[in-house]
Amino acid sequence: MASPDGAPHTADAVGAPPAVEQVKQAAKEQQIDPYNVSGGVDENGNVTAIDYDALRVRFNTPALTQEHLDRFERVTGKPPHRLMRRKLFFSHRDFDKILDYYEKYGFFLLYTGRGPSSGSMHLGHAVPFLFTKELQDIFDVPLVVMLTDDEKFLYTRNKNQGKITKGAALGDFIEYAKQNCKDIIALGFDLKKTFIYTDYEYMGGHFYQNITEFEALLTNNQIRGAMGFDGSTNIGLNAYAAKQCVAAFASSYPTLFGAGDFRAPNYEEARPRKHIAAIPTLIPCAIDQEPYFRLLRENCDRMEFPAPKTALILSKFLTALQGPGGKMSASDPNSAIFMSDTSKQIEKKVNRFAFSGGGATKEDHEKYGGNPDVDVAYAYLSYFLESDDELKEIEESYRKGTLSTGELKKRCIKELQKFVEAFQERRAKVTDEIMREFMTPRKLEFKGNPNATASIEEAVTEKKPEEKQENTSGKLTKGERKALKIAEKKAEKLALREKGQAGEEPKAEDA
Ligand code: TYM
């Protein structure tokens, strides 16, 4: 079948677009968890689009509403990112509470991650990172990025029934993590506020204490229920969830907040600090990761040093090129556009594989119009095209049939090439040294909310009980310095008044 302008029409490759009725019927059969993302299959064997409303109901996560967007704008003074405006980030947990905390204390911790399953990330993986970068810029807060080389190693070995396969030895995942780290840096994160780590390198100290404590709170049954594992799943993968969960605790990274960690040669900081554990976290990610964070939220307050329930902001999936029933997947190169693809490859993939919502023939398309709701080129534009006006105009003309599938694909190709080319230019400049700087644990520098009513220092500086009564360190505490300044000012004023009363002119050196 040919598209209206003669470009290859992809409906043949993946079957006809799903009818709305079919989507509803099949919604209960879709499978979404950290290791499986697929739409349902209808009675005719067609894969149906992921039903996000049904998913929200199943996961019990509230919708992100216009009120949230308005409040975001009020609190930050900045308009919400296009991914939020277009409800591609569509659901959340406790987003309101994070805004409350930010209004009062002026900061929180951002946390997101990537499972390095391949040397290059694809466009879908870039989505939460693009969004996270924008949040980091707007809120001016610290960010941790977890690269789960251990998870991907355990998962792949499990999938291959314990066998080592080509490109899936432990060392391969360590290498993928480094390459992905450079990809993430090239998306523009601010070094001063960002710590990126791989699990194999960083786990230890307070982080590892948090892991074992969290492992003690989770049962096999809970993990099997949330992840779809069974008794034959390797024990490493069963235990992994605790790692991804406690990575959300600020107390897993004391160094970033200027405190000591339990790592050689520093053995004094034996346990995490309560006040750091109390810093709340916001996680931007696609909704496949939600099962981890449900376990996290259920158990935050059972830790010895409890953390507030972690807030989430959840996105839909950038669909596979083949259509809205699946997500881009690194294991199927024809389903995805990689950040390492050339402009030519992007053009070829979109033209050849991108599922089209266009009419079956040129005449049909012009008569009945196209359907942007299932059209992959349109879907990609909705993620990457900044102009709301242009997107609307594209949608309307496609529905009317005045914009052809070929023209729509062309516009999409142009936008993706622009994004990927600019990315590749930045990526080429990310040296090993730059990567190491991002991966070095250090005190992060961030300013947070300038209108907050309490200072960041107050929120993250713990006063030891003895300091509150008597400070014997020789150094003044913040409170003491403030009190001293006030006392000095009062004394100055008093002195001036006394001089005035006594009728004395201030001497030159007093002026
Ligand atoms: P991973 O590598 O599968 O995915 C990385 C991030 O990309 C999101 N994602 C997508 N978003 C939009 N469209 C897609 N097609 C698409 N595919 C993947 C994922 O939701 C994720 O946000 N276990 C995790 C790594 C991890 C993590 C985290 C992720 C560790 N800690 C905290 C998010 C937040 C993983 O394998 O992600």
From TrEMBL:
Any one of the GO CC terms: cytoplasm
Cited InterPro entries: aa-tRNA-synth_I_CS, aa-tRNA-synth_Ic, Rossmann-like_a/b/a_fold, Trp-tRNA-ligase
Molecular functions (GO terms): ATP binding; sequence-specific mRNA binding; transferase activity; tryptophan-tRNA ligase activity
Keywords: Aminoacyl-tRNA synthetase, ATP-binding, Ligase, Nucleotide-binding, Protein biosynthesis, Transferase
ATP-binding recorded as keyword: yes
Primary enzyme class: ligase
Signal peptide: none
Pfam families membership: tRNA-synt_1b
Family: Belongs to the class-I aminoacyl-tRNA synthetase family.
Gene Ontology BP annotations: tryptophanyl-tRNA aminoacylation
Gene3D superfamilies noted in UniProt: HUPs (3.40.50.620), Tyrosyl-Transfer RNA Synthetase (1.10.240.10)
EC number: 6.1.1.2
Region (Disordered): 1-40, 445-482
Bias-annotated ranges (Basic and acidic residues): 460-470
Protein name: Tryptophan--tRNA ligase, cytoplasmic
